[in-house]
Specification:
TIM Barrel; 10 helices; about 40% helix; four-stranded antiparallel sheet; globular; eight-stranded parallel β-barrel; about 300 residues
């Protein structure tokens, strides 16, 4: 297991910080379509003794998810990105299929331990019956759009030596503001990998989102084991329709059992702490992505990994 971080911003200061606390891999955001820029990003990260292992976030996929005109142009961009990643030696592309947006919360200032601030979700507070400007889409339509996408992307990923890692819908509810959500259960991920069977077609196992589903995390890890390419390591209290983020040691998941399950399945890929609490003194930054909470998370993860590997 390799500990990874996404850094916001991706500054030299934070890259040095990541190297000092024992991080192995860096997760980069969508860099555009120039191979030269991707290689420059990889080389910059390597100067700190780190590896650019994953591209994740801000992908041009809005029309793909909705099945709108323009999706073929977006697919062509993703194909170019994947070929560039292969040429640059970056092996994992993490994406999601949350039509009309991305992960969603109803609060970013919910109190956690000691007054730290976390994100939370309460379905009763959403405008779940008010369609977005994108209109409405049914579950069947979203599945059709996903199959259309995968049939054109997976062969390119195979050829480039890049693994695709689908992130669950967060929150994992059946629909949000008129748009169906399909990646909301273990069964949906089993269907995902059957749509276009390939070693390249796999999963980002986001522990927090699977916990939001009410799943037993170690059991889900074992069940999806052959398809897990990348891990988001986080936890929550509660489950849909009402949950909040937690410190990594303060949620409902047996984190020792989770790390033990990853060891049992032979997972050796990147694993990053996902959303973290905002701690005292932090007044700026994207909710869930401030830096001090990640310092705590990385230390906790390193301790868990070392303890599990040391156990007989």
């Amino acid at each position: 297991m390799r500990i990874a971080l996404v850094l916001t911003p991706l500054s030299d200061e934070y890259l040095g910080f990541a190297a000092q606390i024992g991080v192995d891999d860096i997760v980069g955001r969508y860099p555009g379509l120039e191979l030269k820029k991707l290689i420059q990003l990889r080389e910059r990260i390597e100067r700190f003794g780190l590896r650019l292992a994953v591209i994740e976030g801000y992908l041009p996929m809005d029309q793909i998810k909705l099945g709108n005109p323009g999706r073929d142009e977006e697919i062509a961009q993703i194909q170019t990105l994947i070929r560039n990643m292969g040429a640059a030696g970056i092996t994992i592309l993490c994406y999601n299929f949350m039509a009309g947006g991305d992960w969603s919360r109803t609060s970013t200032t919910t109190p956690e331990r000691g007054g730290a601030l976390v994100t939370s979700f309460d379905l009763a507070l959403t405008e779940s019956n008010e369609p977005t400007t994108s209109g409405t889409r049914t579950e069947a339509q979203i599945w059709d759009n996903l199959e259309y996408f995968l049939s054109r992307i997976v062969p390119v990923a195979e050829g480039a030596g890049v693994k695709l890692a689908m992130h669950p819908d967060d929150p994992p509810v059946a629909q949000l503001r008129g748009l169906a959500r399909i990646m909301t259960s273990v069964e949906s991920f089993e269907h995902l990998v059957r749509l276009v069977p390939s070693p390249a077609n796999g999963i980002c196992f986001c522990q927090g989102t699977f916990a939001e589903m009410g799943m037993d995390i170690p059991s889900a890890i074992r069940r999806l084991a052959p398809h897990i390419h990348y891990v988001h390591f986080r936890d929550v209290q509660g489950s849909v329709p009402n949950f909040r983020e937690t410190f990594h040691d303060n949620g409902k998941t047996d984190m020792v059992a989770a790390i033990r399950a990853y060891r049992e399945i032979g997972f050796e890929g990147p694993m990053r702490p996902d959303h973290v609490p905002q701690l005292e003194g932090e007044t700026a930054g994207e909710p869930g992505y401030t830096m001090l909470g990640r310092l705590f998370a990385v230390g906790y993860m390193r301790g868990l990994i070392q303890a599990v590997h040391a156990a007989p």
